[in-house]
Amino acid sequence: xxxxxxxxxxxxxxxxxxxxxxxxxxxxxxxxxxxxxxxxxxxxxxxxxxxxxxxxxxxxxxxxxxxxxxxxxxxxxxxxxxxxxxxxxxxxxxxxxxxxxxxxxxxxxx
Length: 110
Description:
Layout: H1 6-24, E1 30-35, E2 44-49, H2 58-67, E3 75-76, E4 82-85, H3 94-107
Antiparallel strand pairs: 1-2, 2-4, 3-4
């Protein structure tokens, strides 16, 4: 751990989060961003549900991902109606699967 290139690791996590943001950024009614503040565990992809959102709730999306195969566990809640993905435990490439599944659930009709 001491010999780990922490700057490179942080950049890798940021890149993973950016892949998730890029897959969701144009969905109307969502504000999708990367946050790296003291209250996040590394660069975190955060999906805020705006008042104009007409799709499934954050709880419905989170539950659908958990029930899927493979199960995907993401965070929900915080300061606003939000979902978040912290990539610190992801393996290479898993961010693409998470982005795809998030997009599927967020764009499905009720």
